[in-house]
């Protein structure tokens, strides 16, 4: 069964102002390509051509530049967050899929590693994450979506994991088999029914939750989450400082060719 990709890109990316003043964050250019184009290239190199973009802020500009993509519109993006945004594409989760954030650079090899996993749910982890954080003053390690692992299984995913105790940083990419996607949907619906409009883990409301909040909930409910590693081959672009770092360190070698 073929795998599709879902890119989550509804938010404005206000920390990347003025770059995002009147353009989607994923259009910021690094080494001659937009962040989004880097993602599309990495997926295409792995044979993934069915790609959905979940948009909100400036979605029409993404539609115009990339009419080949499937779109889902998170029209409530100012009031929700990444987890809720992902589930605007719930109708596409009957098949295996890989999801990612739209403000990250990742290599074709990172995608290949995710696809190679035989597990139903696999999170892609940057094991060389501290190399980047040495040059990040505006995005401290306490903001990183860090993981702990044991025997090949993710045992915790949380920003509060101590830097020295973290195995690595979740890069926002996860692979779900058809079975894994069904488990994800089951837990999302369960938590939505129980917590809609109410605090959910560290989020003020369930609607404001991040993916990692649901992932940790699933781990505690006994779900198995594997990890696949990418030492480097990934850069998050959250701030202007990150943008400059990416333009200095990300090159065409990351295409994996």
Give the secondary structure arrangement, pairings included.
Blueprint lengths: L3 E6 L19 E2 L2 E2 H10 L6 E5 L3 H7 L4 E4 L8 H5 L10 E5 L2 E3 L1 H9 L4 E6 L2 H5 L12 E5 L2 E6 L9 E9 L1 H18 L15 H10 L5 E4 L4 E3 L3 H10 L8
Parallel strand pairs: 1-4, 1-6, 4-5, 8-12
Antiparallel strand pairs: 2-3, 6-11, 7-13, 8-11, 9-10, 9-11
CATH superfamily: Spore Coat Polysaccharide Biosynthesis Protein SpsA, Chain A
Number of helical regions: 8
Quickly give the structural class: alpha/beta
Shape: globular
Portion in beta strands = 15-25%
Count of distinct structural domains:
1
User: Fraction of residues in helices?
Assistant: 25-40%
In the CATH hierarchy, the third-tier topology is known as: Spore Coat Polysaccharide Biosynthesis Protein SpsA, Chain A
Order of helices and strands: EEEHEHEHEEHEHEEEHHEEH
What is the residue-averaged pLDDT? 93
Number of strands: 13
CATH architecture: Alpha-Beta Complex
How far apart, in Å, are the first and last alpha carbons? 26 Å
Biggest β-sheet strands, sense, barrel: 9 strands, mixed
Regarding CATH, which class? Answer: Alpha Beta
- Poorly predicted tracts of residues: none
**Nearest-angstrom radius of gyration?**
17 Å
């Amino acid at each position: 069964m073929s795998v599709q990709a879902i890119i989550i890109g509804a938010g404005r990316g206000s920390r990347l102002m003025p770059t995002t003043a009147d353009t989607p964050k994923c259009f910021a250019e690094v080494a001659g390509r937009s962040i989004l184009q880097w993602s599309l290239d990495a997926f295409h190199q792995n044979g993934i051509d069915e790609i959905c973009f979940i948009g909100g802020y400036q979605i029409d500009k993404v539609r115009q530049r990339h009419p080949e993509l499937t779109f889902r519109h998170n029209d409530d993006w100012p009031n929700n967050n990444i987890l809720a945004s992902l589930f605007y594409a719930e109708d596409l989760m009957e098949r295996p899929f890989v999801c990612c954030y739209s403000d990250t650079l990742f290599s074709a090899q990172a995608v290949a590693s995710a696809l190679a996993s035989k597990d139903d749910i696999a999170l892609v982890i940057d094991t060389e994450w501290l190399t980047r954080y040495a040059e990040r003053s505006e995005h401290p390690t306490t903001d990183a979506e860090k993981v702990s692992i044991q025997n090949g299984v993710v045992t915790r995913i949380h920003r509060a994991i101590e830097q020295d105790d973290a195995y690595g940083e979740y890069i926002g990419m996860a692979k779900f088999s058809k079975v894994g996607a069904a488990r994800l949907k089951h837990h999302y619906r369960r938590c939505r029914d129980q917590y809609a409009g109410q605090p959910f883990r560290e989020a003020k409301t369930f609607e404001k939750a991040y993916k990692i909040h649901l992932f940790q909930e699933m781990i505690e409910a006994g779900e198995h989450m594997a990890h696949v590693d990418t030492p480097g081959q990934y850069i998050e672009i959250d701030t202007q400082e990150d943008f400059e770092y990416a333009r200095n360190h990300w090159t065409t070698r990351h295409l994996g060719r």
